[in-house]
Each structure stands twice: as C-alpha cells, then as structure tokens.
TrEMBL record, chain A:
SMART domains: AAA. SUPFAM superfamilies: P-loop containing nucleoside triphosphate hydrolases. The lineage of its organism: Bacteria, Bacillati, Actinomycetota, Actinomycetes, Kitasatosporales. This is ABC transporter ATP-binding protein. The keyword ATP-binding applies. Gene3D superfamilies: P-loop containing nucleotide triphosphate hydrolases (3.40.50.300). It comes from the Bacteria. Pfam families: ABC_tran. GO terms for molecular function: ATP binding. Residues 2-235 form the ABC transporter domain. Keywords: ATP-binding, Nucleotide-binding, Transport.
UniProtKB/TrEMBL annotation, chain B:
Its main location: membrane. PANTHER family: ABC TRANSPORTER PERMEASE PROTEIN MJ0413-RELATED (PTHR30151:SF0), ALKANE SULFONATE ABC TRANSPORTER-RELATED, MEMBRANE SUBUNIT (PTHR30151). Residues 57-241 form the ABC transmembrane type-1 domain. Keywords: Cell membrane, Membrane, Transmembrane, Transmembrane helix, Transport. It is a multi-pass membrane protein. It is found in: Cell membrane. The keyword Zinc-finger does not apply. It comes from Streptomyces ureilyticus. Pfam families: BPD_transp_1 (PF00528). The chain crosses the membrane at residues 7-25, 65-85, 106-135, 183-208, 220-240. Gene3D superfamilies: MetI-like (1.10.3720.10). Belongs to the binding-protein-dependent transport system permease family. This is ABC transporter permease.
C-alpha cells in the first residue's frame, strides 16, 4: 500500500545544511497499523510530511498504491498533533468535518451521511453544532479523527496525535484508534515518541535512529489482536517488547544498533512466538 | 434585569454628566460663538429638516458608503495578494509605507486636478484615505495564517478559491476588521473634509456655510449631528463585527480563561 524507498531529506538554508532524514526504506501493507517510534528530534515529522506530500524529499520516493506521491494524495488523511491549530476555529464541528468533502465534490446527502457516521464513530454526535474551542482537548482531537475518517482515506497518517492530551484521555483515544482500525480496515501509520503507545497500538513498530534518520529496526508486535489498557499493558510479552524497543532507542541515541542476544527472537523476520 | 439596568447606567452616566455640564456652563452664555446648549437643541429640528436630510446628509452618506466600499474591496483584494506572496510583499512594502504616511487630506487638491470637483473627487478622496488601514491589516492577517492550518488545508485538498474563502480570509478576518474599523473613522473625517474644499452640498459644506454666515447655533447642530452619525455608524459596525467574528471573541475568551 505504502512504499518508502531510499527517502532522504536535507534542509538547506542560511548557510546551514541539516540532514534530517538520511535513508529510509520500509513498506506498510494494506490494512496494517504501523507505529513509528524514535528519539525526539529524529525527523519523524519530516518523514510524515514527505509521505503526505507536504514536503518534497531531497531524494528517494514515496509510493501510495504503486503511484509516486508528488502532492497531497486524495487517498490520504492527516491527523496532526496540534489539534487546536488544525481545526478551523471559525467553523462548527460539523462544518470542519464536511469541508474536505465539499472539495471532493460529493453530493450534499452523501456528505451529511459521512459526517454523521464519522462523528458517531468518535462519539461526538452531540457536539456537531459546537465550535472546536468549546470542546476539551481530547474531544477536539476526536473531531480531527472524525474529519480524517469522513474523508474515507486508504491511508491515515497520524503525527503524534495524543502527545498533547492528558493520560486518561490518551488511553481512551488509543482504544478508539485501534477500534476504528479493526472496524474499518484502513491502513494507519502512527508516529509517536511514546514507546508504550507504539507497542500497545501497533501490529508492527518501526524504530528510527537519531537524526540523520535511518530505520534502526522493524519489530513485529505479536500481542493478541484484542487489546485493552488493563490487561495488555501488564502482560509479560508487552513488557518484553517495550523493554526491547526502549533498549533500541537508547542504543539509537548512543549511535549504534543494540546487539542483544536475548531479544534476537523478536526481530521482524522471526516467527511469532504465540 | 438588575444587571442590565446597572450596565445601562454605566453606559449613560458619563454622556449625561457631560451634557448636563455643558447645559449649565453655557446656560447664561452671551458669547456669540458659544451659544447656550438649549438654543442649539431648539435650533436642531429647524435646521435638519426633511429637505436638508435628503439634499445634504444623504449625498454625504452615499459618498461615504461608495468610497468606503471601494476601499474595502481594493484593500482586501490587494492585501490578500501582497500578503500571500513574499516576493510581492518585499517589492511593495516600502512604497506602501510611504503612501500610507501621506496625510489623506493633502490629496484633496491633487485629486481635484484629476477628478474635478464632483462626486467622483469626493469618493476618490474617501477611498484613498480608507484603503491604507484595510490594506495593511489584510496583508498582516493573510501573512499570519497558521502554518498547521495551511498544511491541514493542503493535505485535505482545500486549495485555490476554497482555500482563500474558507481558510485565508476567515483566518485574517480579525485583522481585516481591525482595519475596517480604523478606516470607518478616517472615512467620516474625509467625507467632511472633501466637502469643505469644493462642494455644493453635503454635511461638511453645510457646516462651513453656517460658519461663514455666522449662523453659529446652526453650525453647532451640524457638529452634533456628525458626532451622532459617527456613533450610529460605529454601533452598526460593532453589530456586523459581532456576527462575523463571533467565533473569534469566543475563542479569545476561552483561551484567556484557561491561561
């Protein structure tokens, strides 16, 4: 579904040259939920913007369904971290969700249907007439998710979407995303700096190195498909996986891949252990 | 109810005190130039009769409306273009700063040379003075569109005219309205000034005529009328602004309360 090949992004300006992303190659299959995790400042947002067609990579390419991405593709929806700046404060919740659909030239009845359905999926049917700033942070991010869902994307890109909400709201939103993913079968690429979140949510975790970024490791998360905050997070396997990711990120910060014998069996190419 | 009464009291208290003070201070005045307030008030209905309203006040207001509207259209349109492109802005900014620094009244004689002494000249004077605050505020507003919002718009395919209408202009609307508000008071000033130079009707013309003919109480009624007019226009403006910028005031109150 989503192919990233040899992606490289160098920012140049005022005599400074910053290599944010060096060489990234990975694929995301249709219907997969992949989490990207890496140390802070490792170019996660740069990568996501290149994938969303918001930035042009210096070299390499991004393919969506086999076709190269040169601008924001219609089959892709974005959820940004800064919900307060991503929703339009002059529009009511309903209109925020509907605006991209108008651009898609859908009929009014179809638009109403999609908006109502999307708001229901995130549990905000009652808030349709409110302005975003009248809602709590968690609810605003739900509106942003509803807007993305109504857009009916093949791929949903989420850029640290829950970094700015409190822990309890965050847990609810994580379950919401997993639930939506299971119901709707969309492909989700979820960027986060939170290791627990990455392991809890993902079917696969891509661990990135520090900037200039390369893929440090791909890890298959062999937790059961049905996950819940209470039990999954205390499962021994969850602890093993998060420890492994944590070690890899620490190693990434030190500038080399961790070579740990006892976690070799967790590599992506290893068969699932359950 | 009690709250409303209290608010009404605070709104009306100072104007009332000032009127009363004026009333008693001027009550026994024999100075020709400072007639008692009661003389001015009794003259008022005689001066601003139906005929004068239609022959002087209405043309003034229509010219103000025409000049102000032209300035708003040109200011917002040009401001959007200049604000959207960094290169255009770099080229235009020094010129704009210069033009804006020229006091609009000095343009009256110049514009008279090109546009004669008719309505066109007066509308041009009003428009040329009103356009600057609108233009410069629009440039600032358009330039300050939040980067996350523009990226959101782009990623959802909101481009071209839809982006302009739903994102850029809405996001810049608080600044655009700030410019429109400044322009309104400039417009009223220029409406009067343009009629003082070469005119055969209008509020400014009438007031100058009264002064030249030593009809001093009549002149004072004209000044009162101008004050009232400015007041009514600003109230109307506030009503429109509340409609259009309701979201902005709500947003601001919310963020003020939470910080």
């Amino acid at each position: 579904m989503l192919d990233v090949r040899g992606l490289k992004k160098v920012y140049e300006g005022s005599g400074r040259r910053v290599e944010a992303v060096r060489d990234l190659t990975f694929t995301v299959d249709a219907g997969e939920l992949v989490c990207l995790v890496g140390p802070s400042g490792c170019g996660k947002t740069t990568l996501l913007k290149c994938m969303g067609g918001l930035l042009t990579p210096t070299s390499g390419e991004v393919l969506l369904g086999g076709r190269p991405v040169s601008g924001p593709p219609p089959g892709m929806a974005f959820v940004f971290q800064e919900y307060g700046r991503s929703l339009f404060p002059w529009m009511r919740v309903r209109d925020n969700v509907e605006l991209p659909l108008k651009q898609k030239k859908l009929s009014p009845s179809r638009r109403r249907e999609l908006v109502a359905d999307a708001l229901e999926s995130v549990g905000l049917t009652d808030a349709a007439g409110a302005y975003p700033w009248q809602l709590s942070g968690g609810m605003q991010q739900r509106v942003a998710i509803a807007r993305a869902l109504a857009y009916e994307p093949d791929v949903l890109l989420m850029d640290e979407p829950f970094a700015a909400v409190d822990a309890q709201t965050r847990a609810d939103l994580e379950d919401l995303v997993r639930g939506l993913w299971q119901q709707r079968g969309i492909t989700i690429l979820f960027v986060t700096h939170d290791i627990d979140e990455a392991v809890y949510l993902g079917e696969r975790v891509l661990i990135l190195s520090t900037s200039p970024t390369v893929v440090q490791e791909q890890l298959k998360v062999d937790l059961p498909a049905e996950r819940d905050q209470l039990h999954t997070r205390v499962a021994p396997r969850f602890a093993e996986l998060r420890t492994h990711v944590y070690e890899q990120i620490q190693a990434a910060k030190r500038g080399k891949a961790a070579d740990l014998e006892d976690v070799k069996d967790m590599k992506a190419d290893a068969p699932p252990t359950h | 109810m009690k709250n409303l009464a209290l608010r009404l009291f605070f709104v009306l208290a100072l104007p009332l005190i000032l009127v009363i003070a004026w009333w008693f201070a001027s009550d026994s005045s024999t100075d020709v130039y400072w007639p008692p307030l009661h003389t001015i008030l009794t003259t008022f209905p005689d001066v601003w009769t139906g005929e004068r309203l239609s022959d002087d006040v209405l043309p003034s207001l229509l010219r103000l409306l025409a000049g102000y509207t032209a300035a708003a259209v040109v200011g917002v349109a040009l401001g959007t273009v200049i604000g959207s492109y960094r290169r255009v802005r770099a080229v235009c900014e020094p010129v704009l700063e210069f033009l804006r620094a020229v006091p609009p009244p000095v343009l009256v004689p110049v514009i008279m040379l090109f546009a004669g002494i008719g309505d066109t000249m007066k509308i041009a004077v009003i428009a040329s003075g009103c356009v600057w605050p609108i233009l410069l505020n629009t440039v600032e507003g358009v330039r300050a569109v939040d980067s996350v919002m523009s990226e959101t718009a782009r990623s959802y395919g909101i481009t071209g005219s839809a982006r302009l209408r739903h994102v850029v202009l809405r996001s810049a609307s608080p600044q655009i309205f700030a410019g429109l508000r400044q322009a309104l008071s400039i417009g009223i000033i220029l409406m009067v000034i343009s009629e003082m130079f070469a005119a055969s009707n209008g509020l400014g013309f009438t007031i100058v005529q009264f002064q030249r003919n030593f009809a001093i109480p009549d002149m004072w009624t004209g000044i009162l009328l101008l004050g009232l007019l400015g007041f009514v226009l600003s109230v109307l403006f506030r009503l429109v602004e509340r409609q259009v910028l309701g979201w902005y005031h709500g947003l601001r109150d919310t963020s003020r309360r939470s910080s």
